[in-house]
Amino acid sequence: MLSYIKSFANGAVFGVAQIVPGVSSSTLAIVIGFYNKLLTSVSQFTKDPKQHLKFLIPFALGLGVGILAFAHVISFLIENFSLPSITLFVGLIAGIVPSIFANTKITRGEVKPLRVVFVILPVIGLIAMSHLAPSQSPDPVAYINNIGFIQIIHIFAAGFLSAAAMVVPGISGAFVLLLMGLYHVLTHTLSAFASGLTDFDVWRGTFTVILPFGIGILLGVIIAAKIVEKLLSRYSASVYSVILGLMLGSVYALFNDDITYQSGISAGKVAAAAGTFVVGLALSYIFGKREIKSHTKDNKRDEENL
After folding, report:
1. Which pTM value belongs to this model?
2. Residues 46-96: pLDDT tens digits?
3. CA 79 from chain center: how many Å?
4. What does the alpha-carbon distance between residue 297 and residue 232 come to, in Å, rounded to a whole number?
5. Per-position DSSP letters for the chain, written without gaps between them
6. Left if phi > 0, otherwise alpha if psi is -120 to 50, otherwise beta: which for 169?
7. How far apart are CA 145 and CA 152, in angstroms?
8. What's the pLDDT at 249?
9. What does the angle CA 61 – CA 74 – CA 87 come to, to the nearest 5 degrees?
10. Under 8 Å CB-to-CB from 257, ≥6 apart: which residues?
C-alpha cells in the first residue's frame, strides 16, 4: 500500500511540474528519485505489464490530480505575480546547470567538438522558436468555442510534443505549450473542468480539448521514453549536451515571453523576483546535484567517438 501512495504522490508532483512554465518534470523526477522507475516502466511496459502497472496506475492517477488541482493556482500566480514566478523557475533551471554541464564531459582536457555543437544548436533553436512563437496567446474561451479540425490537430501536437519534452530532463512541457500558444488554453480548460465537474456544458466544452491533448500525451510519453532510455544508455554525454543547450535556450525564451511581464514591473516585484531566483537556485543545486550524479551512474556506457 505504501508503494502505491508513493507512486501517487510522485505522479502528483510530476503533474504539477508539467503545468509550470520552465520547470522540467523529469528533472524534478530525478531530484526526487523516481525518474529511472518511470522511464523503465514506460519503455519496458510490454515486458512485464502487470509489474509496471503497479507503478503506472497510481502514478497516472496522481498525475491527473496534480494537474487538475493546481491548474487554477498556477494560473493565478502567473497572472498576478508573473515575474517572481518565472524567476523562481529560472532559478530551478540555473541551479541544475552545473550538474548537467559536468555530465556533458566538456572539460578543458577533453573538448569534444560535436558535443559543443550539441549544446549550441538547441540554444539557437529555442531562441528562434521564442521569436517565432505567437506574440499573444489566443483567448481561451474564444479558442474553445471555435475548435475545428485544425485546432484539434494543434492540440494533439501540443500534447505529443509537451509529453516528449517532459520525458527529457531539463525540458519543460509547459514551456512547449507556451511556444505553441496553447498554455493559457490548456490551463483555462483544466481549471474550468476541475471547478465544473457537475456541469454538463463544461464537460462538453472541454472534451474537445482534453481528449486530443490526452491522446497526444500518451503517445508522446511512450515513444519518447523508449528513445530517451536507449540514448541515455549509449550516448549519455551527448544527450546531456543537448539537454544543457535546451535549458540555456529556455531561459532566454522565458525572458523573451510576454507572460513574464504580464503582471507588471515594479521595484517590489523585481526584489521579489531576485529572492525567488535565489530560492530556486539553491533548491535545485542542493537537491539536483546529488540525484543527477546518482542517475548517471546507471548509464555507464558513454560514446567516446563523439
Report:
1. 0.73
2. 888 888 999 999 998 998 888 777 777 877 888 888 899 889 878 877 887
3. 20
4. 11
5. -HHHHHHHHHHHHHHHHHTSTT--HHHHHHHHT-HHHHHHHHHTGGGSHHHHHHHHHHHHHHHHHHHHHHHHHHHHHHHHSHHHHHHHHHHHHHHHHHHHHHHHT--SS---HHHHHHHHHHHHHHHHHHHHS-SSPPPHHHHHHT--HHHHHHHHHHHHHHHHHHHSTT--HHHHHHHTT-HHHHHHHHHHHHH-TT-HHHHHHHHHHHHHHHHHHHHHHHHHHHHHHHHHHH-HHHHHHHHHHHHHHHHHHHHTSGGGGTT---HHHHHHHHHHHHHHHHHHHHHHHHHHHHHHTT-----S--
6. beta
7. 12
8. 85
9. 125
10. 130, 133, 178
The letter for the amino acid at 241 is: S
- Per-residue pLDDT reduced to its tens digit, 18-37: 777 666 788 777 766 788 88
Dig out the grid coordinates for 207 from the structure: 472534451
The pair phi, psi for residue 220, each rounded to 5°, is: -65, -45
The residue with cell 502497472 is 53
